[in-house]
Amino acid sequence: MQEIIDELLSVADEIAYPLDEPDFDDIVRVEEAILLPLSRSMKTFLQECSHITHGRYEPVTVADEHSHTYLADLTARVWSEGIPRDCVPLCQYGRDLFVVTLDDEVALYEDGELSDKTWPSIWHWVEEVWIRDSDY
User: Fold this and answer.
1) Which of 22, 41, 95, 122 is the most buried (most CB within 10 A)?
2) What is the pLDDT of residue 85?
3) Angle between helices 40-49 and 2-11 (to 10 degrees)
């Protein structure tokens, strides 16, 4: 995991107004808002990576409640659109949505329908999709 985080940091985009780095209280506020505990790997991802900007994907964030990627708001919206409540958004890209399941896998919803594309963990998704800035 740390090697993947280090690789992501090495390819991160330099931007004029960087995203705020989250703290543990930001994560707790989101858990309270969605009434669902986040997995350890999701919490680690949020603390270590959610402030990083790279390529075309914009994963969820927890430090800025006004961001279009704010996890609590995005979760409420996708749940209201029919995504199962046992899935937590990881990254929205156009009409597609990557989610983290209760099994801590990453699944892909394309146009609101569950596809057969999955990744065994958040870290596999970070490496294979976000870092490589690849199509899935």
Assistant:
1) 122
2) 95
3) 30
d(CA 63, CA 50): 9
Global pTM reads 0.92
Residue-wise pLDDT for 6-42, tens only, equals 889 899 888 777 788 999 999 999 999 999 999 999 9
> Rounded to a whole number, what is the largest CA-CA distance in the chain?
38
As a whole number of angstroms, the distance between CA 76 and CA 115 comes to: 21
Task: In whole angstroms, give the CA distance from residue 55 to residue 39.
Answer: 25
**What local confidence, expressed as pLDDT, does residue 19 receive?**
82
Q: How far apart are CA 58 and CA 132, in angstroms?
A: 14
98: left (phi over 0), alpha (psi -120 to 50) or beta: beta
Residue 107: strand pairing partners: 99, 118
Structural tokens at position 136: 């899935």
